[in-house]
Amino acid sequence: MKKPKFEAKYYEHREELDLLIHDPEDVKGKFGGFEVLLRIGSPVLRNEWNSEANLTASERKYKVGTLLPSVPYELTVRGLVLPNVFSELADPLLFKPSKADQCAPQNVKLEAIDPHTVNMKWDLPAKSHGHIVGYTILWNLNNRKQKSIHLSSGQSYIFTNLQPKVSLSASVCAHYKPEVPPNLEYIGSFSKPSTVITPPSVQ
């Protein structure tokens, strides 16, 4: 069996790492699943790997929760061919989460342009985890949650087709693609919500 491959997304605001393991390749025998292994600390220390989870042959996803900020973690995966033959370890994922809000966009502002339009702008986060590959906007109208908005670039967004005298609240987070490791997407914390009320319509 070939060395496994996987990709991961880290959600800073949830302190959670979501794994997606690729299908096994060149399995000679009956595939028995994957084992997720985790160790804490710098790779220089070479701490022992700890078994985090054993996945069944059909499972490809796993969530690693409660990861502490500013602590280095190293994670890997290995496959099992029954009854007890393990593959080589996957290339380890080494990363260190930031403290909440350090990677959130700054100075988020909402401005009502007219009764039906609101302009949203923000500055880059104070700390970066690589190249920003997109943003996610969470927003509410009169405290009712709306469908999230996903942007591939830019530091602004225009809300249109709004009703007069509605309260719009919004926050935004950045998605990062670090140069190392290449199989990680780091999703920063959301900014503090900003709120604006659209003006009444002009009679």
In words, what does this structure look like?
This is Fibronectin type-III domain-containing protein. InterPro entries: FN3_dom, FN3_sf, Ig-like_fold. It comes from Hydatigena taeniaeformis. Residues 104-201 form the Fibronectin type-III domain. Pfam families: fn3 (PF00041). With 203 residues, this protein is mostly beta strands. It has 2 domains: 6-95, Sandwich (Immunoglobulin-like), CATH 2.60.40.10; 105-198, Sandwich (Immunoglobulin-like), CATH 2.60.40. The chain has no helices and 17 strands. It has strands at residues 6-11, 16-21, 31-40, 50-55, 61-64, 73-81, 85-86, 93-95, 106-114, 117-123, 131-141, 144-145, 149-151, 156-159, 167-177, 184-187, 194-197. Strands 1, 2, 5, 11, 12, 13, 15, 16 and 17 form a 9-stranded mixed sheet that branches. Strands 3, 4, 6, 7 and 8 form a 5-stranded antiparallel sheet that branches. It has a 3-stranded antiparallel sheet with strand order 9-10-14, with no helix packed on it. A hairpin with a 2-residue loop joins strand 11 (131-141) and strand 12 (144-145).
